[in-house]
From TrEMBL:
Pfam hit, one: Glyco_transf_15
Name of this protein: Nucleotide-diphospho-sugar transferase
GO biological process: cell wall mannoprotein biosynthetic process; protein N-linked glycosylation
InterPro entries: Glyco_trans_15 (IPR002685), Nucleotide-diphossugar_trans (IPR029044)
Amino acid sequence: MPNIQVLNNRGTIRHISIIAILLLTCLGLLHVFFSATRGLPHFHTTKEKYQYDDHTPLQHPNPNFKAAFVTYTKTDVDSLLKLRSTIRDIQDRFNHHRGYPYIIFSNEVMTDEFKELVSSTTQNNVRFEHLDASWYGYPSSIDKSKAAKAREDMKNIIFGASDDYRFQARFMAGLIFRHPAMKDLDYYWRFEIGTKYLTPIEFDPFQYMKDNGKKLSFSFALYEYHDTIPSLFPAIDHYVKEYPAHTIHKSEPDTLWPFIMDANSNDYNNCHFWSNFQIADLSFFKGPSYQHFFNYIDQLGGIFYERWGDPVIHTMGATVLLRKSQIHYWETIGYQVADQFIHCPSDKSIYKSGICRPVSNFDNQGYSCLPRFLQ
């Protein structure tokens, strides 16, 4: 007769084996599930179909003018994360109680999923605009072989080998102001994806620009890499001499010339305004004077034969066409690009409600051109 204790042990072992098999089966199923979903984007949901109405007219909350936030983006997951993050910052710091719309440009296909995930970060209008080759590509005047050689020669300079950088620079420097989506706007707030707004903005910068007659504004001023623009300043000098009737001369008061000129060499000192945070009166950029200037720059081909960026082109346009008093520096707005470019307002009543320290300011570093603008 079998021992009762042995039978009990056998039953226990059987139960343990069954439980072990069930656990291994569950683990196997989990492994299959996670293997299948490992490559999915961060914003994956179980929703089968996204729908976004891209034809709703933009709503303009300010009765005095029409203004919008404007940016360019790619459509990969990393760009989507950065775009959503920056819009969230803008909404939290300023726009949640203002209601200005957004216009998003891209040369890549923006799916309904992309549009819905971006638009979900704000309760305000978002307009998505796709750029074809007529807006984002080589103009017919460019010698592509010469452009290719320039990219090869500049491959060791940041963005020097990139044609995509140049397409974007050309669009943002001048073509954007001709785009139908910008036609009715009086002001734009250009923002760059991934940048951060660090402090509450309790006033309306658009209204400030209008009330004070400001045409252009900036947060950072710094030196451009001279190797990317060796022939730009001679071209600007030639432009002023060729069109003296509608340009501002170096000898006149209230100009930007001292900001960009080296007092000793009388040459360009490479200072320029960054445009990744730029609020502007679009009557300047869309006006005939700037458009004439941009056509001149565009025909020279320096965007492709060297690496002229849109910030330095904007700066040169402002130098020859605007007074210094028409340019505004946003000291009271906390702002960050990457890790090393930080501006924090000096007013404690502002920065104490934000997430920055004035001691971190890039403005205090030797690579900043801000002291030259303020002097």
